[in-house]
Design a protein that fits this description.
The structure is a single chain. The chain is built from 5 helices and 8 strands; from the N terminus they run E-E-H-H-H-E-E-E-H-E-H-E-E. The protein is of the alpha+beta class. The chain has one domain: Aminopeptidase, CATH 3.40.630. A hairpin with an 8-residue loop joins strand 4 and strand 5. Helix 1 crosses helix 3. The protein is globular, with a radius of gyration of 15 Å.
């Protein structure tokens, strides 16, 4: 069941059936560099990642990260959605796409639709975004969807410093 539909994309809840795609996405060098190594090395690891992350978030929060697919072919190209982190007061928009789908406007299209969903369907009043300072692609997307840089943050004491962006909706 699709949660969000755009001109070119479909976004739906992740399930353990998406484990092979998640295994590929999370082991892309760019994912590890900009988001982090999640230690997902096998299909079983990917299934556990989906269950503990996205599926648990759907049950707990009513939202989470969604599989993002090309409309028509339903080829998975990334994930985009909403994340509620214990260390941040508000919900943040998150996204990650396979490198071959970068620079085609898909992240902007998906993140814009997720923001509209957050505002119109979930009634959220404020959305955050986080990115490593060197992740210029993600920073451009966050700024293009209307988020403004607020401050530097760490999600945990031993984590890297991240740029925090925000949008009051």
């Amino acid at each position: 069941m699709n949660i969000i539909e755009t001109d070119r994309l479909l976004l739906r809840k992740l399930s353990t059936d998406d484990a092979a795609f998640i295994l590929d996405l999370l082991n892309q060098p760019s994912f590890i560099q900009y988001i982090g190594d999640r230690g997902v090395r096998t299909l079983e690891d990917a299934k556990r990642y989906i269950e503990a992350g996205a599926v648990a978030s759907y049950e707990r929060n009513g939202f989470g990260l969604y599989l993002t697919m090309l409309k028509g072919s339903e080829i998975p190209i990334g994930m985009c959605g909403l994340v509620k982190r214990d260390s941040l007061k508000d919900v943040d928009v998150g996204f990650a796409f396979l490198p071959q789908y970068w620079l085609k406007g898909y992240a902007f299209e998906a993140a814009s639709a997720v923001l509209a969903y957050a505002r119109n369907e979930l009634g959220l009043k404020r959305i955050l975004g986080i990115a490593t300072p060197d992740n210029q692609g993600s920073i451009r997307v966050l700024e293009k969807i209307g988020l403004k840089f607020e401050k530097m943050v760490r999600l945990s004491a031993d984590d890297v410093e991240l740029k925090l962006f925000a949008l009051d909706m």
